[in-house]
Automatic annotation (TrEMBL):
Transmembrane segments: none annotated. Keywords: ATP-binding, Chaperone, Cytoplasm, Nucleotide-binding, Stress response. It comes from Roseicella aquatilis. This is Chaperone protein HtpG. The keyword RNA-binding does not apply.
Length: 609
């Protein structure tokens, strides 16, 4: 060819702009390879599309993306068989950074808050220039499909670029990066393969890395989620689940669907069959991977709410741009709609599978505490999540639901009763349950850390209030049957005496008919945290709030009857009152106010017996 080398200027502000692109937009240098691979994949897809109406542009039979590192020359070549670019297109696409105006782009980028930068970046498309993070010089040789002419675009990322005639045997593009001295890690074939597996493993075009003259596959090349379900085997699902979830088990549930219409996306999600080695309670963010046109974008898009963070998998959409700043993907309206659709689909699967109690128990035992977080924090789905909760109960073996509880409620029972503590087995023996058992009233036993929080936020289920039996006064008089046995002693004179003796430790002393075998029990005031929440606050070194606890005594118990008979003239009443309070504390899993003094009192009582 006779054309001479042509030199063109980017524009006076390009140095500042490229500096922003290289140093401000990316947190990981390896992103450059993702960007260039994404561009190459787009070029191949475009050629494939144009070939539908112009068969002469068809892809070669063995089209692939080749990545060729050359340590001796310190170059990295990325070659594709895509649509290619003409001389004019090279100037337009590579020679005009941010075609809407480089100065406007630079100004907007510099002035915008960090949360707005991704949307600005997406408007200008500058991903190619990430190559200058690792390269001193970039050369692009391209031949447009359907033409015989090739051109080379070259730049050192400063004030200008050159265009020169070139030769290329086939249509497509070669990008040659002359690597910086501190970027030689990207000339190692193993490093390149690991980056491809991370960011572009499921791009459908084969990607190969040349090592010692031989081409080695770098990607799987099959987007399993884009295949019809009928073409995917259970073994393939299980293998992909283990890959994406970093797990060794088989999934409890596999959700594979394609949405078309208002939203266009494919999803392949898995509910694990066992807990991961890293506790899901400690990690708050969902890690479902977001892909755009098969290209991995991020696993931090929040595609599912935190209370479904145990779900693993991939969501792939056509409705989002391949953004330069993928690691800072913003919450676009499209992404928000996808989030809602995906969340509803997972909820639907859980509700469907929950009908099989034995099967559902497996996922509940693994991830129940995480699901409970949805009741606490997600107002939109609160009632739906509540229906998925399962509990131990004072009345039935195994797990039960709120729906089943409602079906077993006694005549005259007004509320759903719960008892919260640290251990379900210990709760089942709690004296707090005595009066409820006597009347046949069921109490749900809650022993997860989150159980101290969510009942207050849910407040009611299907019109029935949820009440902690340790909070306020629980009136069981309207529940038919099961009245406590024995005659109640008149404790009218005893109550104020006990209250005066314990005035530093309790807010009130009152009689109760919800005890059978125990002499006393503690309750929280009507307003404020219940007993378990108070314990949690004390452990955290925080003020309890809501006032001192209430001491409830059983007027049918022999010890209370004896106290009531001689209370007025008993010089040891204060000591006995303290012992009564400490017994109530111990029964609820708490410690006595003075453990050593309590031990001496118990020993003295045993010696006198």
């Amino acid at each position: 060819m006779s054309e001479a080398l042509e030199r063109h200027e980017f524009g006076a502000e390009v140095g500042r702009l490229l500096d922003l692109v290289v140093h401000a937009l990316y947190s990981e240098r390896e992103i450059f390879l993702r960007e260039l691979v994404a561009n190459a994949a787009d070029a191949v897809d475009r050629r494939r599309f144009e070939a539908l109406t112009n068969p002469a542009l068809g892809l070669p039979a063995e089209a692939r993306l080749r990545i060729l590192p050359d340590k001796a020359a310190r170059t990295l070549t990325i070659a594709d068989a895509g649509i290619g670019m003409s001389k004019t297109e090279l100037g337009q696409h590579l020679g005009t950074i941010a075609r809407s105006g480089t100065l406007a782009f630079a100004r907007s980028l510099a002035e915008a808050p960090a949360t707005d930068k991704p949307s600005l970046i997406g408007q200008f498309g500058v991903g190619f220039y990430s190559a200058f993070m690792v390269a001193d010089r970039v050369e692009v040789t391209s031949r447009r499909a359907g033409t015989e002419e090739a051109w080379t675009w070259a730049s050192e990322g400063r004030g200008d670029y050159t265009l020169a005639p070139a030769a290329r045997a086939e249509a497509g593009t070669d990008i040659v990066l002359h690597m910086k001295a501190d970027a030689e890690e990207f000339l190692e074939p193993f490093r390149l393969q690991s980056i491809i597996r991370k960011w572009a493993d499921h791009i459908t075009i084969p990607i190969v890395v040349v090592r010692d003259g031989k081409e080695e596959p770098a990607n799987e090349g099959t987007a399993l989620w884009r295949k019809p379900k009928s073409e995917v085997t259970e073994e393939q699902y299980a293998d992909f689940y283990r890959h994406v979830a970093h797990a060794f088990d088989t999934p409890w549930a596999t959700l594979h669907w394609r949405a078309e219409g208002t939203l266009d996306y494919a999803a392949l999600l898995f509910i694990p069959g066992m807990k991961p080695f890293q506790p899901v309670e400690g990690e708050r963010e969902s890690r479902v991977r977001l892909h755009v046109r098969r290209m991995f974008i991020t696993e931090e898009a929040g595609l599912l709410p935190p209370w479904l963070r145990f779900v693993a998998g991939v969501v792939d959409t056509e409705d989002l741009p391949l953004n330069v700043s993928r690691e800072m993907l913003q919450a676009t309206p499209v992404l928000a709609r996808i989030r809602k659709a995906v969340t509803n689909r997972v909820l639907s699967e859980l509700k469907s599978r929950a009908r099989e109690a034995e099967d559902y128990a497996k996922v509940w035992e693994n991830f129940g505490p995480v699901l409970k977080e949805g009741v606490w924090e997600d107002a939109e789905h609160r009632q739906e999540v509540a229906a998925l909760l399962r509990f131990r109960s004072s009345a039935v073996e195994g797990w039960t639901s709120l729906v089943d509880y409602l079906a077993r409620m006694k005549e005259g029972q007004q509320a759903i009763y719960v008892l919260v503590g640290d251990d379900a087995a210990a709760l089942a023996r709690s004296p707090q349950l005595e009066g409820f058992r006597a009347r046949g009233v069921e109490v749900l036993l809650l022993s997860d850390g989150i159980d101290a929080f969510w009942p207050e936020r849910l407040a009611s289920f299907e019109g029935r209030p949820i009440r902690s039996i340790t909070q306020g006064t629980v009136d069981l008089s309207k529940v038919a049957g099961g009245e406590p046995a024995g005659e109640a002693t008149d404790v009218a004179l005893l109550l104020p005496l006990l209250k005066d003796a314990l005035k530093e430790d309790v807010s009130e002393v009152r009689a109760t008919d919800r005890l059978v075998d125990s002499a006393a029990v503690l309750a929280a005031p009507e307003h404020g945290p219940d007993l378990q929440m108070q314990r949690l606050l004390r452990r955290a070194g925080r003020g309890v709030g809501g006032g001192l606890p209430v001491l409830e005594i059983n007027p049918r118990h022999p010890f209370i009857r004896k106290l009531a008979e001689g209370a007025k003239d008993d010089p040891a009443l204060a000591e006995k009152a303290g012992l009564l309070l400490d017994l109530a504390r111990v029964q609820d899993g708490d410690t006595p106010r003075d453990p050593a003094g309590f031990a001496r009192q118990v020993a003295a009582a045993l010696g006198a017996a």
